[in-house]
Amino acid sequence: MNAIEWVKNHKAETALIAIGVWFIGGKLLGSATLYSINTSSSGNYYGASESIFDGVSALGNSKSTYLPVSQTATPQTNTTDRKVVQDSYLSLLVKDVTKTQEQMVAKAELVGGYMVSSTLSYPEESPYAQIVLRVPSKFLKDVVEHYRSLAIKVTNESLYGQDVTDQYIDLQSRIDSMNQTLTRYEEIRQKATEVNQLVEVQREITSLQTQIDSLKGQQKYLDQTALLSKVTVNLSTDELALPYAPTESFRPAVIFKQAVRSMLGTLRDCGEFIIWVVVYSIIWAPVLAAFIWWRRRAKKAQLIANSGQVKK
């Protein structure tokens, strides 16, 4: 019996085999695509640069129909004391992730900084951690050099800076202008004699004061972010877990690790498929058994009928 005849005579078995091949093949293609994307990704790990004004937008949500707050900064060129916000990013290969985290926090606290957040993944297998710290900007260079000394290898390092001096000065000019307007409203309130005038003037004073407080909050935020630089450090004992692009175009060791991981993922997917098949066997097994029994009975009846015709 050739393959075509077998398929014709065993349609149910062929359907089950096709479903299994489709499931495993899809998983293989998915795994290969995933590792292809991982190996081709480069310096876009961090994506769009993180805006330093996430907190500013939360402080400036007050609304007014009288004196709206402009978000456009007026350029200033004659300022010597610049305010620069600095963000540093490091990816380090280390021997002990937990111990290195503790040493980094201790160093940050020693210079007057603090830890913002810390995460740890896969502590038992291949530990990966990300720690975010704030340190005084004047100690940023010293802190980064100390962190590099804790690593076996520095796989990625970057420093981003943004000058916010113009924004700071623009905020101050708007605060001064609003204070002058506020003073005029205070004078009007003192001279007002009617209740409706007092209510209207008080509403304007309240709106102006809210906007002034919001702008002062934005100034305070800029002061704090300029004085305290943010340091984001990725740590792992596995170089492949760190966000960086390999400098070599062909790395057999890296490809071997990826192939092993892909194989393990495929075996896991196969195991999952088998478990699903076994669990659902309470449904498909009786149906398949009934179908096979019916097919054999039909063939047997046909053979009996054919043999009877031959005897005649």
Secondary-structure map with pairings?
Elements: H1 3-9, H2 11-40, H3 54-59, E1 84-93, H4 97-110, E2 114-121, E3 128-136, H5 140-149, E4 153-163, H6 165-191, H7 195-227, E5 228-236, H8 252-279, H9 281-311
Parallel strand pairs: 1-5
Antiparallel strand pairs: 1-4, 2-3, 3-5
Helix pairs in contact: 2-8, 6-7
Short structural description:
With 312 residues, the chain is α+β, with helices and mostly antiparallel strands. The protein has 9 helices and 5 strands, in the order H-H-H-E-H-E-E-H-E-H-H-E-H-H.
Order of helices and strands: HHHEHEEHEHHEHH
Label the overall shape.
elongated
Q: Oligomeric state of the chains?
A: single chain
- Compute the number of helices: 9
Tally of DSSP β-strands:
5
Helicity, as a percent range: 55-70%
How many discrete structural domains?
2
Question: Explain this structure to me?
Answer:
- The chain is an alpha+beta fold.
- The chain has 2 domains: 54-241, no CATH class; 281-312.
- Helix content is 60%, strand content 15%.
- It is built from 9 helices and 5 strands.
- Strands 2-3-5-1-4 form a 5-stranded mixed beta sheet.
- A hairpin with a 6-residue loop joins strand 2 and strand 3 (128-136).
- Helix 2 (11-40) runs antiparallel to helix 8 (252-279).
- The longest helix has 33 residues, at 195-227.
- The protein is elongated and about 125 Å long.
- The model is unreliable at 31-77 (pLDDT under 50).
